[in-house]
Specification:
Elements (H helix, E strand, L loop, with lengths): L2 E6 L9 E5 L6 E13 L6 H14 L13 E13 L3 E2 L10 E4 L15 E8 L2 E9 L8 E5 L5 H15 L3 E6 L24 E5 L8 E2 L2 E2 L5 H5 L6 H14 L3 H7 L2 H8 L6 H15 L4 E2 L7 H9 L3 E5 L5 H22 L3 H5 L4 E6 L12 H8 L5 E7 L7 H4 L4 E6 L3 H10 L8 H5 L5 E5 L7 E5 L2 H20 L8
Parallel strand pairs: 9-17, 9-18, 10-15, 10-16, 11-12, 11-15, 13-14, 16-17
Antiparallel strand pairs: 1-4, 2-3, 2-6, 3-4, 4-5, 7-8, 7-20, 18-19, 19-20
Length: 502
């Protein structure tokens, strides 16, 4: 599980760097990853380096020069590495170790060709080895979307930039449904003057925007029908007592699809008369009414089912589009309500189509991205998000949890996330949570995770042979690359290949 090699004094080496071990006379080679680096010296005394350091300090105190050249040949560094696998005709996990004194060298792009089949078509960046970035695109496969994705990092490490890259890749491909719920208002136009957003991609046929605030560009207003809201949706927003839940269930049974508006519109006495005298205390009904009144105050809940956006959003996702839902000017209760109602509608629609194989086969893999996911994924039971985490992969519906604090997400739910984007986590507890839940063994990568710089990422997924280090594209640069590729394709289509004659 560990390989060590020696390198000469002055050679550069980085934690996280991937290297190749040439295995003696065989054509097979080992791919290894540097976990740690140590100083060493050829000396009989174990504390020789410490003694020499003391000598240098004393000579410095007397302005004397130390003859460093005379000891350079004795100094070296040791790379302590984890084997990633063997590369020959195919890649395989290692079950042995390289021969003694095998040559260690830096990798080239040719050494990673075996990765191409597992990196997928949703590009996010280039392969990275330590700080060295290779011209080798890295992404994830669309088949990973229903198996759930976690994007975890502390503030400033590049979560939003990564999300925009994922969305742009999906817009290019038009093969996957991707709904992004944006509570911060940073994805549409970039949020800051020097940053770009999804609208700057110029792919209006692949992006559909819904917003509760005015945007500088085409968008749809946000409305959900009162008849679509379930009691379980409200439980994501408020804590209800047993008596309050019993009252709401009774009202839903008695009033049907209009139960929410009826509770809001009718007086307490009218409700008591309809449901039965003495069954429910006035205080119980008043608490529920006050909570509903706070929701109806805003122009979010429509009494007319025809004004609901849920069916439009589902149609867009099934058409392989990216759907951006901007909730940045909503109160938290409204934002959580819209997230819950839309997520449940998408999941239940795909689940209903599952019974018709011909229709279900046409449904593209769909991903629902939740910013600040720890707010709704704290419990493994009850919420629609927990249900999607457990059952979504069967119905082509995945969750993408974006969070700074994986430790606040329920352990059962986080264990369902098969693909992890780890951008940099300072908190030891957060790293432990991901180490225990990752489908790839990342137990030896703690040093590397702590040293990740903004935009540097590790993708741990069962769809890749090992945790892949990536330099995430800067979104603005990725936009230029996509635009350039688009122009190239246009010119190619216009280039004549011959001339007709008669």
């Amino acid at each position: 599980m560990e390989t060590m090699f020696r390198m000469n004094f002055g050679e550069e080496l980085q934690v996280g760097e991937m290297l190749v071990v040439e295995n003696g006379s065989t054509s097979e080679r080992y791919l290894i990853r540097v976990m740690d680096i140590e100083h060493g010296a050829d000396a009989e005394e174990t504390d020789w380096m410490l003694t020499e350091a003391g000598l240098i300090l004393r000579m410095d105190a007397h302005d004397a020069d130390y003859d460093f050249d005379s000891v350079k040949s004795r100094l070296f560094c040791t790379g302590i590495c984890a084997p990633l696998g063997c590369v020959g005709e195919a890649f395989r996990k290692t079950k042995t170790i390289p021969q003694h004194f095998s040559t260690v060298r830096r990798t080239s792009i040719d050494d990673y060709q075996f990765l191409k089949s597992s990196l997928g078509d949703i590009q996010v960046g280039n392969l990275r080895s330590g700080d060295h970035v290779l011209d080798f695109p890295v992404g994830i496969s669309g088949k990973a979307l229903p198996h759930h994705i976690g994007i975890f990092a502390t503030t400033g490490m590049g979560k939003s930039n990564l999300m925009k890259n994922l969305a742009l890749s999906c817009m290019r491909l038009r093969k996957y449904g991707f709904m992004v719920l944006d509570p911060h208002g940073e994805y549409y136009d970039g949020g800051e003057s020097e940053k770009k957003g999804l609208k700057h991609a110029g792919m209006d046929d692949a992006l559909v925007v819904f917003s509760s605030r005015k945007l500088d560009g085409p968008y749809n207003t946000l409305h959900v029908a009162a008849s679509e809201i379930q009691i379980a949706d409200l439980e994501n927003l408020y804590e209800f007592s047993g008596a309050q839940l019993e009252f709401m269930n009774s009202a839903q049974y008695r009033f049907g699809d209009t139960w929410l508006t009826d509770i809001n519109d009718k007086s307490v006495q009218e409700i008591i008369k309809t449901l039965g005298e003495g069954k429910y205390h006035e205080g119980t009904i008043n608490v529920v009414k006050r909570r509903l009144e706070s929701l109806f105050r805003f122009d979010l809940i429509s009494r007319d089912p025809k004004l609901s956006i849920t069916n439009h959003i589902i149609d867009c996702l099934h058409d392989g589009k990216v759907v951006l839902v901007d909730t940045s000017n909503m109160y938290e209760a409204e934002e959580l309500l819209i997230s819950t109602v839309l997520s449940r509608a998408i999941f239940e629609k795909n689940k209903a189509l599952y019974a018709d194989k011909a229709k279900f086969d046409k449904v593209p893999p769909t991903l629902i991205a939740l910013e600040e996911a720890q707010r709704v994924l704290t419990e493994s039971k009850g919420s629609i998000f927990a249900q999607i985490a457990r059952e979504g992969r069967k119905f082509k519906t995945g969750l993408c949890a974006v969070s700074q604090q994986p430790k606040l997400i329920d352990s059962e739910i986080i264990s369902q996330f098969n693909t992890l984007f780890i951008l940099g986590l300072a908190d030891r507890r957060d790293r432990e949570i991901l180490r225990n839940s990752a489908k790839q063994d990342i137990s030896q990568l703690d040093n590397e995770i702590q040293m990740l710089m903004p935009g540097e990422d590790l993708i741990a997924s069962p769809f890749t042979p090992f945790a892949v280090p990536v330099k995430i594209y800067l979104y603005e640069d990725y936009l230029k690359k996509v635009a350039s590729e688009g122009e190239t394709r246009k010119r190619f289509r216009k280039t004549p290949v011959g001339a007709a004659f008669y």
